[in-house]
Amino acid sequence: xxxxxxxxxxxxxxxxxxxxxxxxxxxxxxxxxxxxxxxxxxxxxxxxxxxxxxxxxxxxxxxxxxxxxxxxxxxxxxxxxxxxxxxxxxxxxxxxxxxxxxxxxxxxxxxxxxxxxxxxxxxxxxxxxxxxxxxxxxxxxxx
Length: 143
Hints:
Largest sheet: none
Helix content: 55-70%
Oligomer: single chain
Strand content: under 5%
Low-confidence stretches: none
Number of strands: 0
Structural class: mainly alpha
Mean pLDDT: 84
């Protein structure tokens, strides 16, 4: 659950960085991380610096790097402060309401080659309880 919430929070924050939803995201995440003992000004500066990267020439690379960085930060926060989960969930919902329609749309490109298996999901959950290994040309059916 914490992993999913951390990824959702990170993707929502990064999506908000280049939109009008940024002030909601900035303030909410600053308050959320303030519980770890960080100063609000320090957190706000970090958030602003990260948002500035999104306005740079290589926004796609910045987005990927920031997504992983904030996922890890949120995982640490949720590990140290499990009581922050409801606040993070509510913050994500508030930010998503303010995102433009195209900021709510995700694109995923998943490819598998050479008998590989890919399991992918966006905005939801996926549960794999058992998966057989891929068959090869030399496999023999068991009776």
